[in-house]
Amino acid sequence: MQEIQESKLRLAVVGCGAITTLHHLPAIALSNRVEAAVLVDVDARRAEALSKSFGVPETATDTSGLQGRVDAAIVALPNSLHAPVAIDLLRRGLHVLVEKPMAMNVRECDEMIAAAAAAGTVLAVGHEFRFFDSSLLVRNLLRDGLLGELRRFEMRQGVIPRWPFATDFLLKKETAGGGVLADFGAHVLDLLLWWLGDWAEIEYWDDAMGGIESDCEMRLTMRSGVSGFVEISRTRNLRNTCVFEGSRATLEAGVWDPDPEIRLLIADRQVSLAGRARRDGSSGLDFTQAFVRQLDDFAAAIRERREPFVPGREGRRSLALIEACYARRQPLVLPWSIPSVSREQAS
Amino acid sequence: MSLAGRTALVTGGTGFIGGRLAERLVVEHGAKVRALVRNLAGAGRLARFPVTIVHGDVTSPSDLAAAIQGCDLVFHCAYGTSGSQKHRARVNTEGTKRVLAAAGTAGVKRIVYLSTLMVYGKTGDGDLDETAPRRRFGNPYSDSKLAAERMALSSGLPVAVLQPTAVYGPYGGVWTGNVLRALEIGRQILVDGGEGLANAVYVDDLVSAMLLAAVKGEAVGEAFLISGEEPVTWKEMFRRFERMLGGEPRTVDMTAAEALAYWRRWQRRQPRALGEAFRILKQEQGIRTRIERTREVLWLREMASAVLPESWQQRIKSKLGSGGRPSAPDGALPIHPLSPEMIGFFRARTRVRIDKAKRLLGYAPAFDFATGMDLTEKWARWANLV
Questions:
Q1: Nearest CB to B48: which of A211, A336, A345?
Q2: In Å, how far is B187's CA from the nearest CA of chain A?
Q3: CATH homologous superfamily of domain B7-172+198-230+350-366?
Q4: Average pLDDT, chain B
């Protein structure tokens, strides 16, 4: 009864692209704690069409009039607009949930964190993969040392996308900040850092040739001493799991799927355990429910004046690693890409 | 003429052949590439290069006009890949018509149109060259490609047409990734011992021919068959893919008569199997995905539009293929049935001649089958396909 009596947090959703259409708005509709009050997009028709389908009362083409009309905003714009728009909203006293990657670089992250601190507003980062039950289980198993001494890890994440992009911002360095590493890699690295702690050394390879990378690989050594391999792709369907090999057991869990199978191989490898992670009383999670959890946590952080589950400080961590990767970039050698025909032959 | 510094529009740039072409235009030749892209999600591979991606549709005159303005060259590789067969055929004909119109208005200096061997219809044994009559094949893909090729050659514009055979290589679908996926779940029939000729060509050889067709004056107004130096048999082709996958046998020898009898048995099983298939489909998304990846669905949707008349395709598509595929009693992989048209296709010993391309374009295939397939295997392993 308490929840029904509480007034819902009024949200503006800034940016009406694919993530808003597919996840944020459906999640808002399912949440008891938030409601969408205004949809903002430079494309007025797009905002209006979505406002009709999701029953959102107002639309706007910019964020100038949001103050007083909403309590908080979801910023789901091209990556290059995350920092300027979020900082402006935070300074005007609005709480902000910003999509990943948090910004284009660490400097922008610091400015966002400072703006939230100065205004006393909540800044959360959209790393919804952390809200999967499986992600939490992996974190707990690793934290509690169930696998024994960790020897090696491996993450191979690759999906040929079918995302209904509204614009081409993800295909340009100036609006995306990078390729697959800055995009899907932000999720992968966020989980990795959350699970294993800070990194110490990296080697990084990608296939960009004057544009942005579609495939990348990295060898990481963490501060704990454990090292491993990470592969991320937007041109291949890979195994999409993480593997942690410890002295007592090996754990393999799906990462892309919100309700993946998790396997635990006890060290003698004779028998393994496979199943799905569940919170008490909950059934299998789908993607939108992870967004609902993210929203509910954001709303609770605002009401309870506490940090959200993924605060700006955490969003900054994966971005710092992404930045370090690009600074150490080496070309990813693909045998079939070696120019095979001389320039003379065709000229 | 050199390609360096030239501006080229590539349609179909997110695809297997257009993607490799865009890459080589930029990396090897220093050309400026624009790609007209309908599905932005598929453009990840293109975005690796300094390519200008223009969001638009090849059947939209305004999208084309924007993309083509200031271009010296057009490589038209786009074809219908989604929707009904009718829609795909319309993309092939309308798309080509509008590309030609836009290129004419913009004063483009050369248009390279990617056609197909299928414009010669069902081919028989013996040599085939460009003097052979063009014939309707009887399915929307081939017939619309034929209509588009005719439009291109009669447009009065500086057009060169390439007619590739079975193109394989990294990022390939029909004759690469799809073959691997089909062999993963079932055995391929080698008709008459697989001695029919595949006339395969490695993607880089085709792309080299396209680049030559863009610069050689002799190419204008001409069509060129493009294949590898030596024709390989279907047995060599499927066995090579079989070797990549390893493990159990994935090919089976049959005479044409046996293959036909097998097809008929498979067809008779359909009504009962259909009910069973729908029952399973209702319950199980995973099985649905597996069935959608069978040979019949893969090929009849994507490539064998080149082989079967539409009535056949619709019939098989509606039945979702392998619901009725007999499983082998010995526990081996089931055998993918071949339609009578496919049996004829795999049986033919058509030897595609590439003399004209050699003579007028200076085309010289650089990849023999072994080399091309070794590179393809490296890619397939990397792509998690084997």
A1: A211
A2: 24
A3: NAD(P)-binding Rossmann-like Domain (3.40.50.720)
A4: 88
